[in-house]
């Protein structure tokens, strides 16, 4: 009897336990769904806790317990390969613009100054050292005017350009007074003169291209107008000019207008500029002006400052025959008319043209490029043809859509998406992408609290997509180089430019067109998955290290199996890393790897965070 009674009690207790467990499961499932919806009080509490906590890393990661590494256990038990430092002579090595290699190519049309990357057997599989005495660059805006001498120890420009106010050496720093060959009284005064013709003060002109930029003082001072310039110059006898630009916190790449198309999409820039850039604009059938026209938006401006403008009064000072200068300007004027550019102003040595908003009724004798391949530019030869305008329904319609002022255009729906020009990207998808990256960037800032402080000025997004990371992180304290991989499924770099951001095409199987130590923070979303079967992940990471400044940061977001392998390679580099869960929780297969490059210099076998 007693035993039967005990059995009944046990059954009752078991039933109650099962009901309780099921109830708790249901409760926590609903609670989790409620919190993840964004409307739960738990989210608000978590936000408050985050705000009150000064942690730099989110604790309590459960990566191993939710995503075991059994699948890659063989790799994990292998010894980590150490990637050695390069010899000290390579402190300023630029693989695809190496001076010795350049001299083996023809000098015609600046071919030798174009990209010439090393074959696989000549690549340096080592880490580029910083020069002895290297220090963190000054924060913006002080960096605009001062660069530590130890970071780019080259004085030749201080002598060569002494009377033009480019750069001066003062103690242990270089000072940049803001002068230039065409603006010895300062870039501010020069820009204000341009702004009397070009609407720079109302946000309508936002993106600019500076061809042959020197030390990029024009781009540096344009920031005061909320205009961002992409500056380029070759690695030539003007030693370290692009390096100085990036040390100042100004966007720039090593490049030249030679025989290859510029690495930008059609209709990218609101304004293009040449100040004594030594480009023969009237030569080769106007091909260089045609290339500028390709990347200039309808309604955009082109500024030519210096020879041959105002040749009548300057030919003796320029020590060139007046007939030659007159012929050069005549060819420029004829090409401008062919391109549907209207001359708006010529004062002194400065001439300004405006590309018409559309060009209905253009001369039928014009040779047009094939519009289908207008953005097929990577290592493609320039052609003596005119890029056609987008179609318009009337003479008053702006080809390529109405311009929106900045910052409104940052999150407005770009014309390329509204018009369906980007296959597979709808208005809704664009807006969702913005929301997603806003969430991601907020999560990044909770982990790395330096992002908003001005510590990171030069930022690179290695796989930019629609530019939503750049838009979400946008601040006057920083700028983003939005890179569009040439193998990306969708080419959306034109969308990035329409948002008032800047970017460039690049193939990450090769070195980027920059000097070492030129970026403070590098972001890579899906980059290693994209290049998984294209090139070696180690090579990409070594290039990131070359590009990154000592104590710079890296954020890599990718699938967990990819990140495990990436993290293992980084284990042989001089980086510190931390793997983090996705913001939505540990069950998401996408993870985030945060890294910091350690401080070390030439001749130093140790690293330090001091």
**pLDDT averaged over residues:** 87
Indicate the low-confidence ranges by residue numbers.
1-13, 31-74
Strand content: 15-25%
Sketch the major β-sheet. Answer: 7 strands, mixed
Biggest sheet, strands in spatial order? Answer: 6-5-4-7-8-10-9
In helices, the fraction of residues equals 25-40%
Number of DSSP helical runs = 21
Short descriptors:
610 residues, single chain, 17 strands, alpha/beta, seven-stranded mixed sheet
Structure description:
- It is a single chain.
- The protein is an alpha/beta fold.
- It is 31% helix and 17% strand.
- It is built from 21 helices and 17 strands.
- The protein has helices at residues 2-36, 41-52, 63-66, 73-77, 99-102, 142-145, 156-160, 187-195, 217-222, 241-247, 287-295, 311-318, 322-338, 408-411, 415-418, 427-447, 468-472, 493-498, 527-530, 537-547, 560-570, and strands at residues 146-148, 168-170, 173-175, 207-211, 228-233, 252-254, 269-275, 296-305, 341-347, 350-355, 458-461, 479-485, 502-506, 519-525, 548-559, 575-580, 590-597.
- The protein has a 7-stranded mixed sheet, with helices on both faces. Strands 13-12-11-14-15-17-16 form a 7-stranded mixed sheet.
- α10 links the parallel β5 (228-233) and β6 (252-254).
- α12 crosses α13 (322-338).
- The longest helix has 35 residues, at 2-36.
- The radius of gyration is 28 Å and the shape is globular.
- Residues 1-13 and 31-74 have low confidence and may be disordered.
